[in-house]
Every structure is written in C-alpha cells, then in structure tokens.
Amino acid sequence: MFLVVGIVQFINYSIHGVAFAYSSERLICRARGQAFRAMLRQDIAFFDREENSTGALTSFLSTETKTFVWSQWSDLRHILMTSTTLGAAMIISLSIGWKIGAGLHFSSSCTLGLRFL
Predict the structure, then answer these.
(1) Residue 75 three-state SS
(2) C-alpha dihedral over 25, 31, 37, 42, to 10 degrees?
(3) Fewer CB in 10 Å around end: N or C, the chain?
(4) How far apart are CA 80 and CA 40, in angstroms?
(5) Is the Cα torsion angle 29, 35, 41, 43 positive or negative in sign?
(6) Average of per-residue pLDDT across 34-38
(7) In this predicted structure, what is the pLDDT of residue 64?
C-alpha cells in the first residue's frame, strides 16, 4: 500500500516539476521580452547615464526577470505540492478508516482556516 503511495507521489512530483519548468520558462521569456520592449521605448538620454550601461541592462534582462518569476512561482508551487499531499493523505486515511479520515479532515480544515486569520 505504501509503495503504491510512494510511486503515485513520485509521478505527481515529476508532473509538477515538468509543468512548472515549462510554464516558468515561458513566463521568463515573456517577462524578458516585455522588459526589452520597455527599454527600447526609452529616450536616448536614458542610455547615456552610468547606471544604464549596456552591461547593466543585459545583466538586468538575464537575472532580474528570472528572480522575479521564481519568486512568484515558488509560493504557488509549494501550495500546490502541499495540497496534493494533503489530498492524498485524506484519501488514504478515508480508505483505511473513516474515523481517521474525519479527524484528519477536521484538523487540516482548522489549521488552514487559522492560517488565514
């Protein structure tokens, strides 16, 4: 029983990893494109300043967009992983015994509800 749960969780984590890697790469590409378009719309005086040199702007495009995307996706990824693990635990506990499942469902609902207060 636990071997099957482990295999299912492995498949679940693999799907999550592939899906988030694909979507984050698309989001990074889109963010870089929008940042580059915004840079091209600037006046010529913008590029004459010391802090807006060619190296600083290319460094911004390569590092800051990736940092922005990963900061956004990491929270969503953790929420999704936790919810699927909690859902699997509820299903397993309900299949073993309804009392365990009811207790887990009640305690997790209270914990999640108190987290948002």
Answers:
(1) helix
(2) -140
(3) C
(4) 37
(5) negative
(6) 90
(7) 80
